[in-house]
Amino acid sequence: MLMCLRVLPARVTRNFSRCCSNYVARMRFINKLKEDEGACLTALESGNIFLYHTLAPLLRKTQQGVFQLPLLPFKDLEGILNRLGKDGSMVKDSVLITCTEQNRALFCLDVGELDQQAVEKECGGNFVDLRKAFFTLRGEEAPLVARGQALLRWHQGNGFCSASGKPTTRNQAGSQRVCHSNGLIYYPKMSPVIITLVSDGKRCLLARQASFPRGMFSALAGFCDMGETLEETLRREVAEEVGLEVVSVRYSGSQHWPFPQSSFMVACHATVSPGNTQVDVDHEELEEARWFTLEEIRAALKLRTPPRNPRDQPPTIWVPPSYAIAHKLIREWVDDQELHYDGK
Ligand SMILES: NC(=O)C1=CN([C@@H]2O[C@H](COP(=O)(O)OP(=O)(O)OC[C@H]3O[C@@H](n4cnc5c(N)ncnc54)[C@H](OP(=O)(O)O)[C@@H]3O)[C@@H](O)[C@H]2O)C=CC1
Ligand SMILES: [Mg+2]
Question: Are the beta carbons of 186 and 177 closer than 8 angstroms?
Fold first, then answer.
């Protein structure tokens, strides 16, 4: 089986080396904050914090109608908490997310124990469901809001050691929890998932689960089993879900996916031989899986919002939106087809 990594284009490597020293300094600074409690607290005091209420992020709408993630300086948030009758030192429970290019640390905090509407009024925003926030925010803010929720969720679910049953305590950055009774260290966890777009050279295979919105088809996905390589997961999932045997694999990219909980999505293109394309769907997992032509995929990509079909009409197919790595795989497949086969 082939596994080839894409080589970065020269333009990207040039940009990389230009910003490299700043990037290296920033990564080392973040790492220091995870290891040095005092440095992390100092960074928090001069940093910014964004908020969640029971894991729903706070968003603010600008006068131009654009949704943004409000970033609150430490002192402002301390003041807000004091006004709402809470000890301002609660800000110190914030979890480190990242650092801006100016080395300004960014944290997040869940204020679920406060009255939601009172916080919204104080901060001039609204707490919204993560899915809505993720789909509404632009650029860098969507992955930030997903990362924040994933970390806060992990802390909320790991307050006790699974070996001793005793409470665990977190470090200042929130990058780990420790059980002091036995020294066990817990780190935030993600589940590795392989997502693959299978092609037979001319068509690609998309599938839908019964829980997907009407008409939506996506690439095949599945969780890695313990001890498997990514290639083994990919071959097994394709065999299990659609009864096909993969002959080659090419890496495309990866993505943290917060729904329903943290998955680490690894995206690959895969091919089956043109003589081995008979789909045998596992209906326990999938409602439907079928081959699509380039024309059908082009039409699906043109739909920006889910089509509104009358109930009795067969649904027009559409594919996941651009922030989902499934979309990237599908677009890359179309580009490859256009480059190699279109018009032939
Ligand atoms: N970003 C993107 O573009 C896309 C992301 N995805 C994501 O990929 C993930 C996996 O896809 P899916 O097809 O559902 O996976 P699978 O085909 O592996 O099927 C899911 C089932 O696997 C079992 N399972 C095994 N390990 C785990 C685990 N660590 N966590 C949860 N369930 C597990 C569960 O079964 P049981 O309940 O019986 O135990 C679950 O119902 C989903 O979270 C989905 O949101 C999917 C498509 C596109
Ligand atoms: Mg699956």
Answer: yes
Mean residue pLDDT of the chain comes to 91
Q: Atom 17 in ligand 1: which residue has the minimum CA distance?
A: 222
Nearest to 319 by CA among 311, 250, 332: 332
pTM, entire model: 0.88
Nearest CA to ligand 1 atom 25: 223
pLDDT at 332: 98
Rounded to two decimals, the ipTM of the complex is 0.93
**Token reading at 271:** 């091919």
Fill in the DSSP letter of residue 220. Answer: E
List, as one string, the DSSP characters of 183-213: --EE----EEEEEEEEE-SS-EEEEE-TTSP
CA–CA gap between residue 219 and residue 245 (Å, rounded):
16
Q: Which atom of ligand 1 is nearest to the CA of 324?
A: 3
Q: Specify the pLDDT at position 340.
A: 84
Token couple for 145: 């809001």
